[in-house]
Write a sequence for this structure.
C-alpha cells in the first residue's frame, strides 16, 4: 500500500495531527491513512492518543474493569475487538449482552439451548478469537462457527451448534466435534484428553484460505478440528444450556503462527 502513497503531506507535527484526527470518524481516519506515508505511519501506531480516544468513546468503562482485553494490548486492537464482539441483535431471546460488550449472559430458562453469533462474519483470510466460559458448562457447551442460516435457539438441551449443515462446533463437555447432526470424533486427538475447566482460554482459529477450523486451549494448539469448510460467511458462535452462565469473546485478528 505504501507504494501508492506520496512521501509526505504538508509538514504537520504529530501533536497537531493528533488533535485534528481526534475529531474524525473511523472511516475518515481510514481515508487519512491513505493520503501519504507520514499520515499512514502516524495512524499505524495502534497505541497513540487518536486510537485511545476512539477506544474510550466506543467502549464501555466496564470493558476495562477486568483482564478480558489484556489479550489485545493496543487501543486499536481493543476497538477492533469491540466491533467483532457478540451481536446483541443476533442471539437467543434468552441471552443478553452485558454492558462490557464482550460477555453474554444466559438467563436461567429451563428446557432451552441458547446461542449467540459475533457481529462480523468471515469468508476470506485467517482469523482468531478467544472464548472464555465463566460458570458451569451444563450438559452442552459448544464453541465454533455458524452461518447466518444456523438456528440460534431451540427447545430442550441440545447440541445446537453442529446440529445442522450450517454450523461446526466443539462440545467442551464431552470433547466431541459436531457437524450436521453427527459426532465427528473425539477432540483433541489424545488418549484421555483432559476436559475443559471453567475459566480456561479457548482460542478459535478459522482459516478461510485453507478452509479449516482449529482450536487452542491455554495457548496450546490442539490440531485441526474441521477441514473442507464450504465457501460461506462464518460467524463466531457458541451454544449453552446452563442458567446464568457467561461467555466472553474477544477477536484477536490474524493468528500468530508458532
Amino acid at each position: 500500500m505504501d507504494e501508492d502513497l506520496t512521501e509526505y503531506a504538508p509538514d504537520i507535527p504529530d501533536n497537531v495531527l493528533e488533535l485534528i484526527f481526534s475529531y474524525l470518524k473511523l472511516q475518515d481516519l481510514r481515508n487519512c491513512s491513505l493520503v501519504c506515508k507520514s499520515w499512514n505511519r502516524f495512524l499505524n501506531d495502534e497505541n497513540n492518543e487518536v486510537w485511545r480516544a476512539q477506544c474510550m468513546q466506543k467502549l464501555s468503562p466496564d470493558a476495562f474493569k477486568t483482564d478480558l482485553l489484556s489479550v489485545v494490548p493496543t487501543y486499536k486492537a481493543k476497538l477492533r475487538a469491540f466491533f467483532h464482539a457478540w451481536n446483541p441483535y443476533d442471539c437467543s431471546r434468552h441471552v443478553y449482552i452485558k454492558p462490557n460488550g464482550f460477555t453474554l449472559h444466559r438467563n436461567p430458562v429451563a428446557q432451552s439451548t441458547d446461542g449467540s453469533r459475533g457481529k462480523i462474519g468471515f469468508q476470506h483470510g485467517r482469523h482468531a478469537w478467544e472464548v472464555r466460559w465463566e460458570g458451569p458448562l451444563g450438559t452442552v457447551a459448544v464453541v465454533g462457527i455458524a452461518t447466518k442460516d444456523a438456528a440460534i435457539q431451540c427447545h430442550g438441551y441440545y447440541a445446537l451448534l453442529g446440529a445442522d449443515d450450517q454450523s461446526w462446533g466443539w462440545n467442551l463437555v464431552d470433547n466431541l466435534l459436531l457437524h450436521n447432526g453427527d459426532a465427528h470424533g473425539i477432540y483433541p486427538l489424545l488418549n484421555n484428553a483432559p476436559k475443559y475447566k471453567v475459566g480456561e482460554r479457548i482460542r478459535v482459529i478459522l482459516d478461510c484460505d485453507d478452509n479449516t477450523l482449529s482450536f487452542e486451549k491455554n495457548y496450546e494448539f490442539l490440531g485441526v478440528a474441521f477441514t473442507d469448510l464450504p465457501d460461506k460467511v462464518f460467524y463466531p458462535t457458541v451454544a449453552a444450556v446452563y442458567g446464568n452462565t457467561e461467555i466472553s469473546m474477544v477477536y484477536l485478528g490474524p493468528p500468530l503462527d508458532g
